[in-house]
Write a structure and sequence with these properties.
Blueprint (H helix, E strand, L loop, with lengths): L27 E5 L10 E4 L7 E4 L5 E5 L4 E4 L12 E6 L7 E5 L8 E5 L7 E4 L17 E3 L7 E4 L5 E4 L7 E2 L20 E7 L3 E9 L7 E4 L7 E2 L6 E7 L5 E6 L10 E6 L5 E3 L3 H5 L5 E7 L7 E6 L8 E4 L7 E2 L4 E3 L23 E3 L7 E4 L4 E4 L8 E5 L9 E5 L7 E5 L4 E4 L17 E8 L2 E10 L10 E4 L7 E3 L19 E3 L6 E3 L5 E3 L7 E2 L9 E3 L7 E5 L4 E5 L7 E2 L23 E3 L7 E5 L2 E5 L7 E2 L5 E8 L2 E8 L2 E7 L6 E3 L11 E6 L7 E5 L4 E6 L2
Parallel strand pairs: 26-30
Antiparallel strand pairs: 1-56, 2-3, 3-4, 4-5, 6-7, 7-8, 8-9, 10-11, 11-12, 12-13, 14-15, 15-16, 16-17, 18-19, 19-20, 20-21, 22-23, 23-24, 24-25, 27-28, 28-29, 29-30, 31-32, 32-33, 34-35, 35-36, 36-37, 38-39, 39-40, 40-41, 42-43, 43-44, 44-45, 46-47, 47-48, 48-49, 50-51, 51-52, 52-53, 54-55, ...
Family: Belongs to the glycosyl hydrolase 74 family.
InterPro entries: WD40/YVTN_repeat-like_dom_sf (IPR015943), Xyloglucanase_GH74 (IPR052025)
Protein name: Cellulase
């Protein structure tokens, strides 16, 4: 059971947005809204020199370190302001000094890339930009590990790049040079965003150091495995199957284990194999026979050895859809295999969000990270596309118990959110995970966005005077039947009724099924408007629909949060503000003063864009409008606007109790800002320890709690900020 401080929600609150004079802004305390992991972690790596020390790399949420004393994962890059460095391509704990750890960071081929070094377990980093590109959030991010350290000379590093061959550093990552003698130079940086596997892993013999190095290749048309016995001066291809080398690990005896696949993953990998290589270079196929018997589907991207128990190895599959992914364990060097997945059970009571797809917790998908604790062969962990599982014991027979090992990990992409005037403090819309009602900000939420289930929630709205009425629209990327991408809840998001529009256009088509149609609900919850190609309105819960007059195609309406008869909309193409005073039946232009003639910058960029026009809770006729980086404020239903951003270039904004909040830049400083004077005087409320890669998606103030603000990120989850004083 999740025992934590509960944030209680009251009833509907109708208080006008009173903006007092500017005052010094207090320091803020930032806390994750708990989900419990939630995204793809390509690998987990234990320190070989200290018990209880482990690192986790994610594809867009940075890296984490397990703190055994605190019994939680600690984020290691919250002070990082470079978005690209939140995509971790590889991670390598030093094999000699437990305090030293390295990371290869870079989101994709067109983004900055660097090698990061820490001498204090990730509390602080030295960043060295490098000339080779990375792909921490590209296909192939489950390969590895690309970064390796010579245990006999731990200032000597090797890195297998995606596009530019093999590189080495002899001064602890400060300078890098391409290994001239390596036989594969790579395919070169792509002109377009094309993913290469390149040099997929580097493995150094722990007994000999860099005198013996193995390197895998995950590009087609070349030998998939090379070996050097003279410190990288000369290389020879080693016998291997006709597949790509995905994962390579070496045990304390110098035995190399390689997982092969037909693709670089994490999707569309059809088949694979597992090979074992003796120190003399002799290789043989040790693929589990029952994997072949079940159809030889998927590949082996998880490979781990037990350094405390020579001959013990674990492997896991990826993209084994028909039979389901699994994990095999061998204690005799691959002669016999135990399919652990068949007798596994999972306790997800601490992270019930994992049941969000409406089915039980399965073994997992996108399993590319697998590790055995070097000090305890029974402690095994693996990563999935949504969580990290661990077990403390694998008995010879009987059930194997797994539980999420995720305390402290928040790795989700937040598309949208609302902080209603009643009910739960916040309701979120996530990518991949649908969304949640967060009754308790410190506990993983129960799934409720189920009927219809939509993997991405693109837009949420609530009724200002009846906040239990919530509407949502979203999209589905999973291959499953879908008959609705719109829904309405009358109990604060806990249960939903699917909404369906009549077919539109020629030939008639369901315009509401593509996730593009935003939905809005009136202040009293009685009226809903959908931004379809012919905008539609309903007053009977979606049983019947009527075309809205005067509202351009696919234009999002915004409901006044007090006056149920009033809606607004921005006609960005024509440069007009539209208003409806008849409950959304018809819209007409309003004569507006104070806005620029060109409103094109207020148009949404895509279906996930936040609305540029926001109505203030508890204040009839009060509006805020963002046009490009400028922000405008109206107190008379849009007839007059005044500039409100001052010298702040605004990217995103949200309204709270007595304040307006924004993501923006001023004087070369980008961050989170608050104003208490209608937007004229802004104070920064984040700090240099809370940057999260600058990957902001949405911001909203709390209409019931002064000073509270919610910030949704792209990779580090959902945060709430409160004044620290």
């Amino acid at each position: 059971m999740c025992r934590s401080r509960r944030v209680r929600a009251g009833g509907a609150l109708l208080v006008a947005l009173a903006l007092p004079a500017a005052a010094p802004t207090p320091a803020y305390r930032w806390t994750n809204v708990t989900v419990g992991a939630g995204g793809y972690a390509p690998n987990i790596v234990f320190s070989p020199v200290e018990r209880g020390l482990a690192y986790l790399r994610t594809d867009m949420g940075g890296a984490y370190r397990w703190d055994a004393q605190a019994a939680r994962w600690l984020p290691l890059q919250d002070d990082n302001a470079e978005s690209s460095y939140m995509g971790i391509e590889s991670i390598a704990p030093d094999p000699v000094d437990a305090d030293v750890v390295y990371m290869a960071a870079g989101m994709n081929a067109g983004a900055p890339a660097a090698i990061l070094r820490s001498a204090d377990r990730g509390r602080h980093w030295t960043v060295t930009p490098v000339p080779f590109a990375m792909g921490g959030n590209e296909p192939g991010r489950g390969l590895g590990e690309r970064l390796a350290i010579d245990p006999r000379d731990h200032d000597h590093l090797w890195f297998g790049s995606r596009h530019d061959g093999l590189w080495q550093s002899r001064d602890a990552g400060r300078h890098w040079a391409k290994v001239a003698g390596f036989p594969y130079a790579g395919l070169g940086r792509p002109a377009r965003r094309t993913a290469h596997g390149g040099v997929s892993f580097v493995a150094i013999d722990p007994r000999l150091g860099a005198r013996r190095i193995w390197a895998g290749i995950a590009d087609p048309g070349v030998a998939p495995l090379y070996r050097s016995d003279d410190g990288g001066a000369h290389w020879r291809a080693v016998a291997a199957p006709g597949l790509l080398a995905a994962k390579g690990v070496i045990d304390a005896r110098g035995v190399l284990w390689v997982g092969y696949g037909s693709g670089i993953g994490p999707s569309e990998v059809k088949t694979g194999a597992l090979w074992r290589y003796d120190p003399d270079g002799t290789g043989r196929d040790v693929t589990p026979p029952d994997w072949r018997d079940a159809g030889a589907e998927g590949a082996f991207f998880g490979v781990a050895v037990a350094r405390s128990a020579p001959g013990t190895v674990a492997v896991s599959t990826i993209d084994r859809y028909r039979a389901g992914d699994s994990l095999w364990l061998s204690r005799d060097d691959g002669a016999q295999w135990d399919d652990v997945g068949k007798r596994s059970r999972r306790d997800v009571s601490a992270t019930p969000f994992l049941l969000h797809e409406g089915k039980g917790a399965d073994f997992g998908h996108w399993i590319s990270g697998l590790a055995i604790d070097p000090f305890d062969a029974g402690h095994i962990a693996y990563t999935t596309g949504a969580t990290v599982y661990a077990t403390q014991r694998v008995p010879a027979r009987g059930p194997v118990d797994w539980a999420p090992w995720v305390r402290g990990i928040e790795q989700t992409a937040v598309i949208t959110l609302i902080a209603p005037t009643g009910g739960a403090p916040v309701v979120s819309g996530f990518g991949d995970l649908a969304g949640f009602v967060h009754d308790d900000l410190d506990c993983s939420p129960q799934p409720s966005f189920i009927d219809p289930y939509l993997s991405n929630t693109n837009m949420l709205d609530y009724a200002g005077r009846a906040p239990n009425v919530i509407v949502r629209s979203g999209s589905l990327y999973l291959d499953r039947p879908r008959d609705a991408s719109l829904a309405r809840s009358e109990d604060g998001g806990r249960h939903w009724t699917p909404l369906r529009l009549p077919p539109q256009g020629e030939p008639p088509a369901r315009d509401d099924l593509n996730g593009e149609a935003a939905i809005t609900v009136s202040a009293d919850g009685a009226t809903m408007i959908v931004a379809a190609r012919v905008p539609q309105r309903t007053r009977d819960g979606g049983r019947s629909w009527q075309a809205v007059r005067g509202l351009p195609p696919r234009t999002r309406a915004v409901a006044d949060k007090v006056d149920a008869a009033t809606f607004y909309a921005v006609d960005a193409a024509a440069g007009r503000l539209l208003v409806s005073h008849d409950g959304g039946a018809s819209f007409a232009p309003v004569a507006t003063q104070g806005l620029p003639r060109d409103l094109s910058a207020a148009a949404p960029r895509n279906r996930e864009s936040q609305s540029a026009l926001v109505a203030v809770p508890g204040a009839a006729g009060e509006l805020w409008l963002q046009v490009g980086t400028a922000l405008f404020h109206s107190r008379d239903a849009g007839r007059h606007f005044v500039a409100a951003n001052g010298d702040l270039a605004v990217e995103l904004f949200g309204i709270g109790k007595g304040a307006v909040y924004a993501i923006g830049s001023r004087g070369g400083v980008r961050g989170i800002w608050r104003a208490n004077d209608a937007g004229g005087a802004w104070s920064r409320i984040d700090d240099d320890a809370h940057r999260w890669g600058g990957r902001y998606r949405v911001i909203a103030g709390d209409p019931r709690r002064a000073g509270r603000v919610y910030v949704g990120t792209d990779g580090r989850g959902l945060f709430y900020g409160d004044p620290a004083g």
